[in-house]
Design brief:
This protein is of the alpha/beta class. About 35% of the residues lie in helices and about 20% in strands. The chain has a 6-stranded parallel beta sheet with strand order 2-1-3-4-5-11, sandwiched between helices. Strands 7-6-8-9-10-12 form a 6-stranded mixed beta sheet, with helices on both faces.
Length: about 375
């Protein structure tokens, strides 16, 4: 669906009434209009696809009470501002901005539309009508690392990275921590591509990592180019944000799959019920079943699966958190001492490499 088609859909119907601060308000019989904005094409795999699965799920759950639309391939930064403004003017009362770079444009537009609820993914700014939501993707990266650490033969892992923001740095570190928890010899090479979606750059980065000896790859980018390159070169990889097995039927070890439905259902139900509470940051993960390592490859031995389950149980129960010290930095010095655990505020500011990550972290 292109932008013109999506906005045409968004413009049809009459939106319900919503006023900030009111705990209860009757809505018109017309459906609530909600829109999603995606940074990449929806396609059939990856980040935007996973969000659109959530959109489709709530459309089915709420039926005639909800009218949804989406706009795909919207650039981050100031260029996207007009899209949010157009959607608000078209009568959408809930707008989901699904990428970090939409944060500032959303905050700006939200000031002009105080009766529209905005939810922005992976950012950190909130306002009376702007909430922030995320999935703990680092838990998925850690799970992948546990498997990778046992499946590698070279002890060299590869990571195709997008931008040096805390979200991505957390994933690189978690992947490495998971791998080294079962195989201390593991190291992780990183190639930065400065884009969320560019199949050509993603493939080139994957081939570079493979040429450096990496035999298990993980990515933080949207297309299946990384798993395709891995399949062609005979090395393992993981699907990211969704199952990518169709592009690597033999060598995808599993898919780090996100489920945004849990959050989208909460927000839509909240608005349909007439609630407009103060917005907040929400960060869901394994405990809320918002992420999983699915479709495990049959080549993964039973003992590796057992260890993986134990680690998942430890994370969910809180008995064995990922970010519990002692954890060493890249230089071998302890950065998280024994007895300490990084809290969410600290995790949102992560800008360091843990021991085992190779190369320099971009400023």
């Amino acid at each position: 669906m292109d932008r013109r088609t999506a906005l045409k859909l968004a413009a049809s119907g009459i939106a319900g009434t919503l006023a900030p601060g009111l705990a209860s308000r009757a809505f018109a019989a017309a459906p609530l209009k909600a829109a999603w904005v995606y940074v990449a094409p929806v396609g059939d795999v990856g980040w935007s696809y996973s969000h659109d699965l959530g959109r489709r799920a709530v459309a089915k759950i709420f039926g005639s009470r909800l009218q949804t639309s989406f706009v795909e391939s919207v650039p981050e930064g100031p260029q996207g501002e007009h899209v949010f403004r157009d959607l608000a003017m078209a009568g959408n009362k809930v707008i989901f901005a699904t990428s970090f770079g939409y944060m500032d444009p959303v905050m700006k537009v939200a000031r002009d539309f105080p009766d529209v609820l905005f939810e922005q993914a992976t950012g950190y700014k909130v306002a009376h009508n702007v909430g922030e939501y995320d999935v703990r993707t680092y838990e998925g990266a850690y799970m992948a690392g546990v498997v990778a650490g046992r499946m590698t033969k070279s002890n060299k892992l590869g990571f195709v990275a997008t931008f040096p923001i805390p979200e991505v740095v957390r994933n690189i570190n978690a992947y490495t921590l998971g791998a080294r928890s079962v195989n201390p010899k593991c190291t992780t090479n990183v190639v930065w591509i400065s884009t969320w979606y560019d199949p050509g750059k993603e493939r080139e980065a994957a081939l570079t990592l493979i040429s450096q000896g990496a035999d298990v790859l993980l990515q933080n980018s949207d297309s299946p180019a990384v798993v395709q390159a891995a399949e062609q070169k005979g090395v393992y990889a993981f699907g990211w944000d969704s199952d990518m097995r169709q592009f690597a039927p033999k060598l995808q070890l599993g898919g780090v799959e996100l489920d945004w439905t849990v959050r989208y259902r909460e927000v839509i139900q909240d608005v349909l019920d007439g609630h407009f509470p103060k917005r907040k940051s929400v960060w869901y993960g394994l405990a809320q079943k918002a992420i999983r390592l699915g479709d495990l490859n049959p080549v993964i031995p039973a003992d590796v699966r057992t260890v993986l389950k134990q680690r998942i149980d430890g994370i969910v129960s809180g008995k064995h958190p990922i970010w519990a010290g002692p954890i060493k930095g890249q230089d071998g010095k302890v950065i998280i001492p024994a007895g300490s655990v990084l809290d969410d505020a600290q995790l949102h500011k992560v800008h360091f490499y843990v021991e085992g990550v190779q190369g320099s972290l971009p400023v």
